[in-house]
């Protein structure tokens, strides 16, 4: 950390002399400590994959699930501060309901992501609040087809063919850049994601079967069972 | 404490350069000074056990009780700042009433815990307030069956088979990780909890008969009488 | 005072690194400078006793009275900042009126104390205010029988058989712990309280006849006359 | 001033480590620079006496008058910041009007003083304001008889037989403690007050004829004329 | 400036340890740099006189006029920050209109001055604002007769026979204390004021013809023409 | 800058010990960097002249115009922060519309300027805002005749025969003080203004044809065409 | 950075001693890191060109598009903080809808840009917010013809024949100043823009085909296809 930095990094409403918002950058550090998550678009659908952190066997694993259904054809996976993530997921669900009521049955996913991102941007511009310490991947199917977005603590959004957030993001992205091919089918996409996630596991560390979920055109959201996950891991 | 830390830890709305919220961590310190509490799920129910702090014989013991009924089939035990805990218990009771009025007779415990946790999360994101200095265990029975959650000052929640909060948490959790077995009956669960609590008593310190309460499917909330507690302690 | 403490103790909404709220602790210091007050439950009633500080003979003694009627069957005695105490007593009186209007003739004392304590807790969690510099003993009779509570600047409440607040609290409590017996009658309780108060008078200082008041089941609030006090002191 | 004090004395909502509110104490310093005022109760009435500060002969003396009528049977004398005092006197007058409209013809003076004191207490507990730099003596006659109160910047009130505020308060109080007798008549009370005020004049300084006003049961507020004052001073 | 002063002088809501409000004192410094103004009561009226600062010949002199009509029979002269003064003059005019509508044709000048002064006092007690950097002299005729008040940044008001504000205040006041006589007629009062103003001109500096205005019972506000002023200056 | 100054110059609501408002003075520095503008009254009208800063030939020159029409017979020229100026010009236009609707067809220019100046004064007295970094010259014709005012960041206004703001103000004013004559006609006034502006151009710098606009009784606002300006410059 | 600067640059509502608003200047630094964008007016239309930053091939390129349609005949390109830009684009779209509803079919582009710029100016004058870290170019056709504006973080706007924002602004502007000719047709304008953008690419860096869009009188907004862009680049 530079000498002069500390003067500008404690109030979210303040730019540093080189035009940076330190609080937003620090919020991204919270995300970098979060579990690794991956989204990959394939022919007719999208797959979400999330690392499972080791926890006590006393914890109900499903209470740790990072992949959350937002609406019939939209899901999200989060990385970062767990409570912030829950609040944003709820925000997204309500926004999806409102979109549906206002515009009809299929939610426009881009609009939905924008509403969440606008909320996140506000918390980087006004005093008296801190940014959300969360990044999110939104995946789903709308009238345009399969869609995949991410959204970071600054409220910045992008659309992807394949994307990663959280602790393993750099390793996963490097892997995907190399291995991703257009026009995958579901199996290939799941396999690609598992291999990418595995690539982010540091040497000497165990690779745990991740959460996997897909949204396919016409058949809504589907969470892989433990058996399906294990089979997919073996086939990857 | 690191040299630079003090610059980031006095305003709740501020991230530290490594993405931490110090005020939330300090609130957890308040919880670490609280009485030890344990929740264990068993076949058809949940047991809550709370350490009793030694107090003057002039105090009405029931005014110190940490296990509180939230609704017919939901109870909570708290650890941390006593006044904060009371306010959150009241918040939970009102939320339970609202859930019941809106959705029918049996409260969805997960929804209830989320509402309390959302309240706690808000106090970590907005300026002008401090986080609640409290962790809570919620136990109960809903349409899914027996349920057991905890919630910490960050507003993070998880579901458990067995869980502990407060001063003895680390010792209790280590004990439970080793000794917990699936499909306990009530007696076994109570016995396990008592032994776990005893494991957290530091050497040379007296083990006092704790508070014990259960919620069993179909028979609501039950607080053990002093005699029942003593018998359970002897049988543990 | 520790070196690092001053960084955390000037804003009520801030935890110290070890999870303390210094402003609440400092407010308790204001209480420790207040007059000593005692509450003792006896068979069928409660007695309140308060030290009288020496003041100019020009002051109307009754304007210094610390024991205040809250409702027909509830009284309170305060210690700490006098103006804060007056404001809280008024708050309690209005709350009692509201309880009575809402729930019928006899006020539930525990609910009443909680409402005052909730008010006090709020002032420890929100910015822009300071905690109340006051502790209170609430005594009364409700449908459960004689009741005795205290409430401190944190908003913490407990129920007691016998309790003390203010400058002499430690000495009085030590005395009561040793001498308190269950099932006292009014005379014995008054005598016990007077002796406890006397035990808190530092050597070489004069013991002044205190304020004494009782609430007895079926006969409401009664303040002892000067003669009754003197007689009680002689008989103690 | 102690070394560490400055850290706690600039925000009214902050206690010092020993439980003091420095801003309230500093407001009292403003009062200590104010003109000396005295109130004395006598048989059937109350007298108020206020020192007259030397001012330019160009000033209309009555615009400096410290004794102010609040209501038919209530008057007040103030000491401290002149503008604050005017604002509080107006506050008291409006409160008296409201009391009269709500409860009937004779204002309960204790209630009236409490309302002013509550206003003053608020300014010691909330941020963004400073305490009033004023102490007041309220004198009057209500259904209980002649009454005499003071109220200081903390919002503390007491009832007196005789009381003093302002620069000469200590000297006057010492004099009154020695010389005050019960059951004075008006003449004796006025004489006592004049002598007490004279006792507070520092050696070598001139004693100026003070303001004098009385409220007597059945005959309302009366300000002594210059001749009556001079005669009273000669007879004192 | 004392060493410790700077800790207390930047927030208007803060008393210094000796009970002073530094921001109010600093606002008075702004007044001390203002143009000198004088008010003198005479038999049946009041005269206001204000120094004219030298300004470019390009300025419309009447746009610099310090003497402002408030209402038919009330005028004011200001000294200090020019924009603050304009705002307060407008405030006074609106208050005068309201007084007239509420109470009838002739404005009670004392009430009017109090309303302006209350506004000024508020700005010395609440955070987030600074005091007005202005003193004012109010002159007029009401049902009591000719009246003359001043009002300073603290919101303090007094009634005078003769008064001065601004840069030359001390010199003018010293002159008036010596020379002022009761029962002057208009000519004598104007002459006295001119001589007093001249007494405040520092040696070697030119005395410029001042602004002069009178309010006389039954004939409203009158501003002296340049010729009348010059004649008055010659006759003084 | 003096040593102690920095303690008082960052909060607009704070006076310095010598009664200055540093933030207002710093806002004036922003004006001193602005383009030079001049206003001159002549027989039956007013002329406004503004320097043109050199800018890229890619800029539409009329988008840089400093002379803005406020209402049919009122114009303004600004100097200082460009965005602040635009906001104040809009404020003035709306105020002019309101004046016209309320009082009839011809706007009273003095009232209009006061409303803008009051807005500017507010921003020097309340916290949470900064002063406007703009000075303005208002020129126009109303029922009194041709009028010319300026208004600075403090909210101070004056009426002039001739006035200048911005970077060249001192040089222009010195020139006008020497050369200005009463009862100019339009040509003479324009010529005087051009020569004054030329006098403010520092040696070695090019003199660019300025913006020129006039408001003449009965013929509204008129902006000189490029040809008219060039001809006027040649004739000056 | 100068020594004393840091005292003035962290609160947007504060001027530095030389009349600067550092937070606005720092926000401009954020813009200087943004992608280069260019606008050029031609006969009957306007072209917008934006650099494409290299990103992962996993990103959907259209989700990075900087050129955004605001209304049928108005588009904008942004540079700076991406989330801030999205919020301002939405603001502009809503403003355009309101303009259209209020004033009829063709939006007045200058009014539209002013509304966005006013919003940006507000965030430089009020506390509790930071300025937007964005500059925008607005291009379109209205009743006046083709129009081209920019708007910076200060809220300053200008109209241009050709303009550039973002990282390459200085190089592009230098190129345009030299090469821009009046009365270009669309092809020439596109070619000029591409060459200008290429001029801003630093040596050794690859020139990527940019985004190109035009608005032509009578034919609305048109985004060049990839093929059209490539052809234009070849022809440039």
TrEMBL record, chains A, B, C, D, E, F, G:
InterPro entries: Ntn_hydrolases_N, Proteasome_alpha, Proteasome_alpha-type, Proteasome_asu_arc, Proteasome_asu_N, Proteasome_sua/b
Keyword terms, alphabetized: Cytoplasm, Proteasome
Cytoplasm found in the keyword field: yes
Residues in Proteasome alpha-type subunits domain copies: 8-30
Source organism, top-level taxon: Archaea
Keyword Metal-binding in annotation: no
Protein name (database record): Proteasome subunit alpha
Source organism: Thermogymnomonas acidicola
């Amino acid at each position: 950390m530079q000498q002069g930095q500390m003067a500008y990094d404690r109030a979210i409403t303040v730019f540093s002399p080189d035009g940076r918002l330190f609080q937003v950058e620090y919020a991204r550090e919270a995300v970098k400590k979060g579990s690794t998550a991956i989204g990959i678009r394939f022919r007719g659908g999208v797959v979400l994959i999330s690392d499972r952190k080791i926890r006590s066997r006393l914890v109900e694993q499903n209470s740790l699930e990072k992949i959350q259904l937002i609406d019939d054809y939209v899901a999200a996976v989060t990385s970062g501060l767990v409570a912030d993530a829950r609040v944003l997921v709820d925000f997204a669900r309500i926004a999806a309901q409102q979109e549906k009521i206002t515009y009809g049955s299929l939610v426009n996913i881009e609009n939905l992501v924008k509403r969440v991102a606008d909320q996140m941007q506000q918390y980087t511009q006004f005093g008296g609040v801190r940014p959300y310490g969360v990044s999110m991947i939104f995946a789903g199917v709308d009238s345009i087809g399969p869609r995949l977005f991410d959204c970071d603590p600054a409220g910045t959004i992008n659309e992807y063919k394949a994307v990663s957030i959280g602790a393993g993001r750099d390793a996963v992205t490097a892997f995907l850049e190399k291995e991703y091919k257009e026009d995958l089918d579901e199996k290939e996409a799941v396999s690609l994601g598992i291999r990418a996630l595995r690539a982010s596991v540091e040497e000497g560390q165990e690779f745990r079967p991740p959460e996997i979920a897909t949204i396919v055109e016409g058949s809504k959201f589907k969470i892989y069972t433990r058996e399906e996950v294990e089979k997919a891991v073996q086939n990857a």
